[in-house]
Amino acid sequence: MTGRYLIYTPVESARDEKRFDATWRKFVAVCRSLHADGLSYRVELNLTGARPHVLITASGKAIPRKQPAPRRLLPPPVPAQRCRDRALEASWFLPENRERRNNNTSYWGRHQERYRELSGMAEDVLRAEMEYWQELETLNRQREHFKPGRTDETAFADDEVAA
């Protein structure tokens, strides 16, 4: 494949800076596109003539571009158990639960970073954090309820124990 691209530039680029910038962006876009397609190209600049221009001559066999991966509209769901744990953690650090909290438990030994983060938060931020995780847990339960193929009979099938 061989192709030519002719891009005209403004005669007095110092006066017409916006058009010059637009032309430059167009030139860069064409070169990037040719490079992405795996084509070789040659650039000829003619900036002194009555009609200044850039001539790009491309040649080679185009390689199909890799299609970008589809974007996810929603982030992956946070498990309801993790939401419940986060809400409980945040509630432990509220002033009314100070007596219940034991900072030396094995749980906080394993989660030192989260402990430091929560102990440094102000009360109103902790309340907001707790409400956020509780709401997210509720939303996750609702998401489970509306899954395709789920009926009222199968909604609570996990809770039943086989005898």
Rg measurement, Å: 31 Å
> How far apart, in Å, are the first and last alpha carbons?
73 Å
If helices are DSSP runs of H or I spanning 4 or more residues, what is the number of helices? Answer: 6
Q: Which word captures the global form?
A: elongated
Fold blueprint:
Layout: E1 2-8, H1 17-36, E2 40-46, E3 53-59, H2 80-92, H3 106-110, H4 112-119, H5 123-145, H6 152-155
Antiparallel strand pairs: 1-3, 2-3
What are its keywords?
163 residues, 6 helices, three-stranded antiparallel sheet, 2 domains, alpha+beta
Characterization of the model:
- 45% of the residues lie in helices and 13% in strands.
- The protein has a three-stranded antiparallel sheet with strand order 1-3-2, with helices on one face.
- The protein folds into two domains: 2-59; 80-151, no CATH class.
- Helix 2 (80-92) runs antiparallel to helix 5.
- The protein is of the alpha+beta class and 163 residues long.
- 6% of the residues are buried.
